[in-house]
Design brief:
The chain is built from 19 helices and six strands. It is of the alpha+beta class and 420 residues long. The protein starts with a helix and ends in a 6-residue tail after the last helix.
Length: 420
Amino acid sequence: MHNVKTKWERYCEHLGEIPLEYLKNSKKEDIMMFLEWMLDTYKGIKKKVSVHSYKRRLFQIYHKSVGEDFNDGNKDILDYINGYLTIQYNLDTSEKEKPVMNVDDVYLVQHHLYVHDTSIFPDERQRIQLALLILLQAYTATRPRVLVYKHIDKEKMRDHYFGWEDDITEAEVVEWDPDVDDFKTISYRDINLFLLKAMEVTLRYTKGWERREKPKIVPLYHVDDLIFDAILLMIALALLDEAFEANIHSVQDFYNVQVVPTRISTEFHWRKDIRDIPVFRQAVQMDDETTRTSPTEALHYHTLGLAAGFMQLLSPYVIRRGAGEGVEAVATQPQLQQVMGHRDAGVYQAYMNQRYQVDTIAAFLGRPSAKALMKAASHMSRFVDSRAPTTAHSNLAQLVELRDNLHADVQHQSGTVEKA
C-alpha cells in the first residue's frame, strides 16, 4: 500500500492539498479524478485489473487512516473504471491465467530434479533442500516468505497509511531489529522430528505475525513414495548440517535409535547453536573461491524455472494454489481458511483454479465422471514437453538489444508505441 500512498501524496501536492485531510473529505468524484490523474501520470499502468487494485488499496489506506470504510458511491467508481477509464485509456481487460500444480505436476518436477536435471548445483545439499522446499510448500500451503527469505523494506511496510508514526510504540521500535527480523524464515527451531515416522513444522512467520504472532503447527509423516517423503529429505539435511544434539552422524546412527518401551515416540533434539539457523540456505562464494551452501544465510525467494518442460514459471504460489485446491476438497471452510491463512472465506476465490474441477459433461449426461481426464486437463502438466529447450539461442541477446533500441526510437519520435 506504500506505493498507492506515495501516488496519493504526489496527487495532493499537484492539487496543493494536505494528503490526509483531502482523503478524509474525499467524495467519489475525488477518487475518480485521482484514478484518471494516475493513468495520465503513470503510463506503465495498462490493465484494468491494475486500476481496480489501486482503488482497493486506496480504500484500505482510507480505512487505516480514517478509521472507517469509504462508503460514498463505490459502485459508481467501479462503473467509472469499467466504463469511461477502460475505453478512454484503452485498458487491457484480459486476465493472466494463474496456473495450479497438483500432485502429478509436483511428481514431474521432483522426478526431473532427481533424474533428468543437468543443472550443476554448488553442492548437492542445494538439490536436496530444493526438493524439500517444494514438498513443504505443497504440504503446508503457506506463503513462500514463511519458508525462504524475501527482502522487506521496513520503512515501506510501516509507512502504508497516514498516522502510522503516531501508532507505533517505543517497544515496537526496540523489538524490531532490521538486521535480524529481515531474515525471519523457517529454522531448525521450527522443526520437531520424532521417532514415530512423523515430523512437526511450526510456521511462525505467517502473514501478520508482526502484529500478532499466531504460529501454525503442521504434522507431517512418512510417505511410502520416496519422491514425496519430506521427512527423509529433512533427515538428510540435518545429517549434512550435523544438527542432531545426540551422537547421530549417519543414516545408520539415526535408524539405530530405539523408542523407550514405556513411550510411543522419541523426539530428536537439535544442537543449541543451530536452532536459529535457517533450514533452507543460500549458496555463496567462500574465501577459497569455491561456492557452497552458506552456514547461516537464508535461501532467497526465487522461481523454479522451466527446466522440467513446463510452459509457465513454477513459482511457489503455483504450488500454494494447488495445495489449497487439494485441501478444499477434503476440509471444512474454517479449516481451509486456517491452512491458507485467510481471515475471510471469500479471499480463496482468488486462488481457485480457473478451469472447472467438475465434469459438467458427465453431470449433464448423467454418466460417471472422467476424473482422470479432468485432472489432467485442468493442471499444468497438460502442456509439459520434455524436449522443450532450457537454454536461450545464442543470438537472443542481440535480438533483445535490437528490440529495445527500436522501442526507444519509436518512443522518442512518437511518444508511445501506440501512437506510432
